[in-house]
Write a structure and sequence with these properties.
The protein is α/β, with parallel strands linked by helices. It has a domain at 31-183: Rossmann fold. The protein is built from seven helices and five strands; from the N terminus they run βαβαβαβαβααα.
């Protein structure tokens, strides 16, 4: 009887873990970078977050730049961002834009610049899977409900207010504490999907951002 050899195309993930950048604990009177990939409402969300950060810290210099959704940050603006005390980058609300926004955040963290990736819950598992693959599995994600693109200004403002305090913690808290806090989030759900041979997120993960329900540990709880 003829036999068929079935080969598993999935390889082993071999990465070198890289730590998050050290946080100074303050943002007042510093330079903060805001990197937009020009997705719909991405720049508006960053502007709303800037407003909220000013309310919390007072004066700081805001450095804005834009890039394409499916390309890395240009070298000339990357050099400007490297001179910042912290950087916010977004928006991760589709496949390629999630990959490249996360790429930029990882590059900046590796260069010693505390960064936060703005992401919708629909694509958080993909972002976490890719951060693990890049050796920075504890990269903080500031997650808002999907979608963002068709939101009206007051809806964008509400989503900015939802994550403003978290962003403050991400950019000022001890890097080791952040890694311990964020590494488990979305990781188990991403791992479950990867083990099934897919990284797509057709089923929204808002019900259980930790991935515990997908692993069958707890009942899903709606996120409010």
């Amino acid at each position: 009887m003829a036999s068929i050899e079935v080969l598993d195309p999935r390889g082993a993930l071999r990465v070198t873990e890289r730590p998050l950048a050290r946080r100074s604990g303050r943002l007042a009177r510093t330079r903060i970078g805001f990197l937009s990939n020009k997705k719909a409402n991405a720049t508006l969300l960053l502007q709303e977050i800037e407003r909220l950060l000013h309310e919390r810290f007072g004066d700081f210099e805001a450095v804005y730049g834009e890039k394409g959704a499916a390309v890395p940050v240009p070298d000339d603006f990357l050099a400007e961002l490297e001179a910042c005390s912290a950087v916010l980058t977004g928006m991760a609300d589709c496949g390629s834009c999630t990959s490249w926004s996360l790429h930029d955040a990882v590059v900046l963290e590796a260069k010693g610049v505390p960064s936060v990736l703005l992401c919708t819950d629909e694509f958080a598992p993909l972002a976490r899977a890719e951060s693990v693959a890049k050796g920075m599995g504890g990269l903080p994600l500031a997650v808002i409900p999907h979608p963002l693109a068709d939101n009206r200004p007051h809806e964008v403002r509400a989503k900015a207010e939802r994550i403003a305090d978290e962003i403050v913690e991400i950019l000022t808290r001890d890097a080791g504490d952040l890694d311990a806090r964020y590494r488990p989030l979305y990781h188990r759900l991403a791992e479950t999907r990867l083990s099934r041979g897919a990284t797509c997120v057709d089923d929204v993960c808002v019900a259980d951002p930790t991935g515990a329900a997908a692993a069958g540990d707890v009942a899903a709880r709606p996120v409010t």
